[in-house]
Design brief:
Blueprint (H helix, E strand, L loop, with lengths): L27 H4 L7 H25 L4 H31 L4 H4 L2 E3 L2 E2 H32 L5
């Protein structure tokens, strides 16, 4: 139970009473936030697009020898999951987690005049594109190298 404005602990403050630190009245609905999800759940919430991209990419590699059109569709879906689904998911999850921060931290400018609640999820989305590309490219290289071990 924290103040929505300053983050001060409101455990012993009455329901309608103002915060002892900043004087802001925080509604009961904002005081009763659920605890943060566990590490595994949080990892799953951020990581499922990468698993989807890997599975689509591997499926495209397996199907490539037999069905060229199906493999192309799978490659396009892989690229879409890396460039669109992953960053949007990461930005949204970051935005949701940032709602738990006090208002003055959330709304403070980060890049010139844009509030942190917008800037940080966008930066996380851009970083996700880079990380997903590196990890997917590395996975494809590894699968390709292990698939061609006997041919060298």
């Amino acid at each position: 139970m924290r103040c929505a404005e300053c983050g001060h602990n409101l455990d012993r403050v009455a329901e309608g009473a103002p915060c002892t630190e900043c004087g802001e009245v925080t509604p009961v609905q904002l005081r009763l936030l659920q605890p943060l999800p566990g590490r595994v759940r949080l990892l799953w919430q951020f990581g499922w697009p990468l698993l989807m991209a890997w599975s689509l990419g591997l499926l495209a590699l397996f199907v490539a020898n037999r069905l060229d059109q199906v493999a192309m569709v799978l490659v396009v879906l892989t690229v879409v999951s890396i460039v669109v689904v992953g960053p949007v998911n990461s930005a949204w999850r970051t935005f949701v987690l940032m709602k738990r921060l006090p208002r003055r931290i959330r709304s403070a400018p980060f890049l010139i005049v844009i509030p942190r609640s917008i800037t940080i999820p966008i930066l996380v989305g851009v970083a996700t594109i880079i990380i997903f590309n590196v990890l997917t490219f590395g996975a494809c290289i590894t699968v390709f190298a292990f698939g061609n071990v006997g041919k060298w």
